Amino acid sequence: MAWVYEFSEGNKDQKDLLGGKGANLAEMTTLGLPVPPGFTISTETCRAYLALKESGEGGEPEGLAEEVTDHLGRLEAAMDKRLGDADDPLLVSVRSGAKFSMPGMMETVLNVGLNDTSVGGLAARSEDERFAQDSYRRLLQMFGGTVLHVDSELFSDALDEAKKAKGTESDLDLDADDLRGLVETFKQIIKSETGRDFPQDPREQMDLAIRAVFDSWNTDRARLYRRQERIPEDLGTAVNVQAMVFGNFGMDSGSGVAFTRDPASGAQGEYGDYLQNAQGEDVVAGIRNTVSLADMAEIDRRSHDDLMTIMSRLERHYRDMCDIEFTVERGKLWMLQTRVGKRTPEAAFRIAVHMVDEGLIQMDEAVLRVTGDQLAQLMFPRFDEKAERTLLAKGMNASPGAAVGKAVFDSDTAVEWAERGEDVILVRKETNPDDLRGMVAARGILTSRGGKTSHAAVVARGMGRTCVCGAESLDVDTKAKQFRVRDGETIAEGDVISIDGTTGEVFQGAVPVADSVVVRHFEGEKLDDDLAHAVARIMAHADGARRLRVRTNADTPEDAARARRFGAQGIGLCRTEHMFLGERRELVEKLIVAEDESGVEAALAELLPLQRQDFTEILEAMDGLPVTIRLLDPPLHEFLPDLTELSVEVALAEERGQVDERAASLLTHVRRLHEQNPMLGLRGVRLGIQIPGLFTMQARAIAEAAADRMEAHGTPLPEIMVPLVASVRELEIVRHVLEEQVAEVEEQRGVKLDIAIGTMIELPRAAFLADRIAKEADFFSFGTNDLTQMGWGFSRDDVESSFFSRYFEHGIFDVSPFESLDQLGVGGMVEMGTKKGRKTKPELKVGVCGEHGGDPRSVHFFDDIGLNYVSCSPFRVPVARLEAGRSVLDKR
Ligand code: ADP
Ligand code: MG
Ligand code: MG
């Protein structure tokens, strides 16, 4: 196995070995596109290097130096120049490139090979002293920052200083002498900060830069980014060494980034930013304002047209939207990078459907190109168009969504305020990788500089954070913690602003939000909207493909009706606990404090008609579709006042010499019912056995509601679900009581009710004994929230905030098991329980009703193990439908 590969050796499918950048550089080289030649040091080399470092041995993997020498020799031969040669130097870039793109996270050094001598050679050959000095100062700046870890602000401050001395804002006004002066300053900075001179030996420069790229895999910000994006820790990065081409070679040169379609909206047509007389990193850093590709056509028609031709070729070749970096050196176009471009959710749906219409892909693939997470984002609320609003500025719509929050001007404040529960908008001139923490904490990001390809825009889109960038009329002063709008208004830290990432607008104060167009489409509104059409076509295809049915968790007729409009095929979990709250709390109190049998009965009798009404309405909303009603599950004390509060109340009353009989009696019962571990206490089926009247009343209410609905010519399909069963005997006892009730109602009302009685499987014991439990159950519904708690032995309320972050750090989970099913452990129990249940009853209907029913990864798992349905909250129903379809298509 080699450590190093020529660009001409690889292809786009070798991202594991060559990293994304290297694999695609190889692909473009093979396609015959104008790519400066170079070679890629593999990710494997990085892993070997980091392993040596960790073992304490250090140094480089054996044979690496020789291979690099060999490939460098070939590059020198191809370019007919030698690295850092005094008269005619070959310069190279040393570029990171991991399997998954991590924008701005890792290091790249340009112009490697320049030193005090070769800068003269470059000046002489190019007959452009300014250009040579500009390249040298860039090398010192990048090398100093990334390889030698000098605070990069020292360099940018010195650059600002030089511009100020010259009375200009633009680096373009600095002449050769100014730049030579900067080179001296930069060298001094390096010397005084590191105690060493900038290394003059070109090969040493290159080797140090390669190591720095390897090391950049392990920086804190790179780790944080990977955790955020769920990128595995053990991949490592490749290093690309590539001959330099120069966008800073005068006004007929420049650098740019482009997308083959608009990454924000998905609209057809190229989209990009170009900057004259600049090297690549200037474009994304937003040091000067870029121009559009249309304007580039005016500046350099030929390069522009070449770029268009190449972009359309790349798009057809990759059959997807591509993201491109290019440089023009004295009128000649060079391709420096391409990859399948990141896009907003909105763009993902549009592009997928457009590409079907253009004949590039089939519908199956279109569905696989969008995700449930993206759909969920499209269902987020938008600013209400009818609401009053004060427009402060308009920037670029870099990442969609409606965000409202207090303006903050640095990451620390963003994190601090967000931690105490405030919504914040991070406002910056432009962002850099150090702002990542603040961006994660903020609701939205606003910058005054940079385009849709700037760091802020790219990272925000990746995280699904709302972002408006390049709002140029804002004068952001991060030191004074405020920004000024061109004509007056000043917004200080803590002032509320609203930003619309879909339109690029920035508003003063909090603008109210309204339903998104996608939600309105799901609600059944007839819309002449491109995005709604795209979503509709994708959903129709996913529905046609999926096997898994999707139900909803709904406790009210309103939720049930909405979920039905969203495509729910029934209710998988109708909780009854909320029906005992509000005004009905009093009745529950009565039930609990009842002295004798007749007191209990009286309280239950009052509850019965109320419950019946609840069920009638829900059955009506879901007419013709199954409705699984779960009998009362939580411990009774949840319906009573808090023990401590009540004790204090009673004690205070006593002190004042007033005795509140009701409170005092209630207190006795609250004490009696108090549990150390309510989650493991008197709840679920245990309640039904302890207070039989409770479940009886509920069963009766369900049966009567069904009978009422039949009389009204409806088609009620209720199912009764018993929670927290651990033993078949529990279910047997309760089932008997429930059946009695149903039979009685059938007889009284003269109807035939077909009410299935099933159980939740949410205890490990139940999963283990599912074959026995199935004897008494018409269906199973896995309660994966409890099964997760009971399986791991921790309670969600306690642990998420206490030790989960440590667990993430140590890689014990990469995502909370409450958010996405722990497929191995908890999923293993679901799979086992399903198999065992179906061994007893082959036709046993099995579903899931935890939060996981709407989580994309979990939905695929439930489909794979052959469940009949998932049930999730109404807003997750479309997500589950889409993912259930994708799960089938994925396997095709
Ligand atoms: P990132 O992954 O952060 O985009 P890159 O390796 O792509 O880092 O490089 C940063 C910038 O330098 C890009 O704009 C890129 O186009 C430019 N660049 C990289 N290599 C060269 C080169 N050989 N010649 C000219 N510009 C280059
Ligand atoms: Mg790049
Ligand atoms: Mg439960």
TrEMBL record:
Known cofactor(s): Mg(2+)
Limits of the Pyruvate phosphate dikinase AMP/ATP-binding domain: 16-51, 64-289, 298-352
Residue ranges constituting the PEP-utilising enzyme mobile domain according to the UniProt record: 422-504
The keyword Secreted is assigned to this record: no
Gene3D superfamilies, per database record: 1.20.80.30, ATP-grasp fold, A domain (3.30.1490.20), ATP-grasp fold, B domain (3.30.470.20), Phosphoenolpyruvate-binding domains (3.20.20.60), Phosphohistidine domain (3.50.30.10), Pyruvate Phosphate Dikinase, domain 2 (1.10.189.10)
Classification via InterPro entries: ATP_grasp_subdomain_1 (IPR013815), PEP-util_enz_mobile_dom (IPR008279), PEP_util_AS (IPR018274), PEP_util_C (IPR000121), Phosphohistidine_dom_sf (IPR036637), PPDK_AMP/ATP-bd (IPR002192), Pyruvate_phosphate_dikinase (IPR010121), Pyrv/PenolPyrv_kinase-like_dom (IPR015813)
GO molecular function, one term: pyruvate, phosphate dikinase activity
Keywords of this entry: ATP-binding, Kinase, Magnesium, Metal-binding, Nucleotide-binding, Pyruvate, Transferase
Record EC number: 2.7.9.1
Domain of life where this protein originates: Bacteria
One Pfam family, short name: PEP-utilizers
Reactions performed catalytically: pyruvate + phosphate + ATP = phosphoenolpyruvate + AMP + diphosphate + H(+)
Domain PEP-utilising enzyme C-terminal: residue ranges: 536-884
Family designation: Belongs to the PEP-utilizing enzyme family.
NCBIfam families the UniProt entry points to: PRK05878.1, pyru_phos_dikin
Name of the protein this chain belongs to: Pyruvate, phosphate dikinase
Organism of derivation: Nocardioides potassii
Gene assigned in the entry: ppdK
